[in-house]
Amino acid sequence: MQLEGKVIVITGASKGLGKALAQRLAKEKALLVLSARSGTLLQPLAKELDAAYFVGNVASEKDMRALADVAIQKFGKLDIWINNAGAWSPLTSIYAFDTDRAKELIETNLFGTVFGAKAATAHMLPRGEGTIINVLSTTALDGKNKSAAYGADKFGARGFTLALREEMREKNIRVIGVYPGGMRTDIFVEKPVEYESFLDPQLVAEKIVQNLCLDTPAEELVLRREEKSLH
Ligand SMILES: NC(=O)c1ccc[n+]([C@@H]2O[C@H](COP(=O)([O-])OP(=O)(O)OC[C@H]3O[C@@H](n4cnc5c(N)ncnc54)[C@H](OP(=O)(O)O)[C@@H]3O)[C@@H](O)[C@H]2O)c1
User: Fold this and answer.
1) Residues 21-61: pLDDT tens digits?
2) Which ranges of 170-200 would DSSP assign to H, the alpha helix?
3) pLDDT digits (tens, 9 = 90+) for 187-198
4) At a CB cut-off of 8 Å and minimum separation 6, what does 51 contact?
5) pLDDT confidence of 221, banded at 50, 70, 90?
6) Could you give the domains of the chain?
7) Residue 150 annotated in active site
């Protein structure tokens, strides 16, 4: 797919993988709409990349509809929507499982993906084309020790992704699931982890963009830590 002139929405674009994707896609001359809950980092990034931006929460269906509206008002169409925003919680035994915290993760990582996809498809279905990318995690593939809450919401988001893909297949809307291994980002800021062996988010962004540029992109893109040498 040629990305020049494509209108691309990225949630969670102010930091980490979302920011790396925005910077990489700007090089392809895509027309970007960036979003996050705080404008502090988002606004200067949008200015630097000549992108539109919207401050909103993926856990709000209303905000996700408003984000799609920004893309339509500014650029008149919506080609690609990247559900990237996500949260994490420190590793804990299920005996210390914090239900309120787990609900927050589910609202962001699972419902955020659902609301983003609903907002995107509302505009893509009438045009009969579009691409949705859901950033999941290898935690959506493997049960990881002491990662019950994050694992539950990422497995949930994966289940949603697989169902959405089948429903959208006959509508000419492509649905791609991306499964990165650990990346060196601020997601771990609450309880830093030893992440020297983790992936550089810029490398993950590069792999996602390379896949998108293919005539037939992979529907399931698994980027494990061992693959960090793949450029
Ligand atoms: N880092 C890893 O090891 C790793 C591995 C596999 C998968 N992932 C996934 O990759 C994605 C990006 O993670 P990252 O590591 O780049 O995280 P990050 O550096 O912490 O960045 C998260 C981004 O999402 C935004 N965000 C968080 N909660 C949000 C909400 N409720 N509504 C809207 N925006 C929200 C943040 O901005 P605001 O705080 O201003 O909203 C920020 O822009 C996530 O889906 C994560 O689960 C990460």
Assistant:
1) 999 999 999 999 999 999 999 999 999 999 999 999 999 99
2) none
3) 999 998 888 899
4) 22, 26, 31, 32, 33, 34, 45
5) very high
6) 7-229 (3.40.50.720)
7) yes
Find the Cα–Cα–Cα–Cα dihedral 228, 82, 47, 78, rounded to 10°.
140
Distance set, CA 1 to CA 5, 32, 61, 167, 214 (Å): 11, 16, 29, 22, 6
Cα separations (Å) of 206 from 22, 86, 198? 11, 19, 15
Ligand 1: which of 33, 187, 193 to mutate, judged by most atoms within 8 Å of the beta carbon?
Answer: 187
Long-range pairs of 186-194 with CB within 8 A, sequence gap ≥ 24: 186/15, 186/16, 187/16, 187/86, 187/87, 187/88, 188/88, 190/89, 190/90, 191/90, 191/91
Atom number in ligand 1 closest to CA 85: 24
Residue 12: both structure tokens together = 């969670």
Helix, strand, coil percentages, rounded to 5, for the chain = 50, 15, 35
Exposed, middle or buried by CB within 10 Å (0-12, 13-18, 19+), for 87? buried
Which amino acid makes up residue 79?
A: D
Question: Which atom from ligand 1 is nearest to the alpha carbon of 182?
Answer: 3
pLDDT interval class at 212 (50, 70, 90): very high
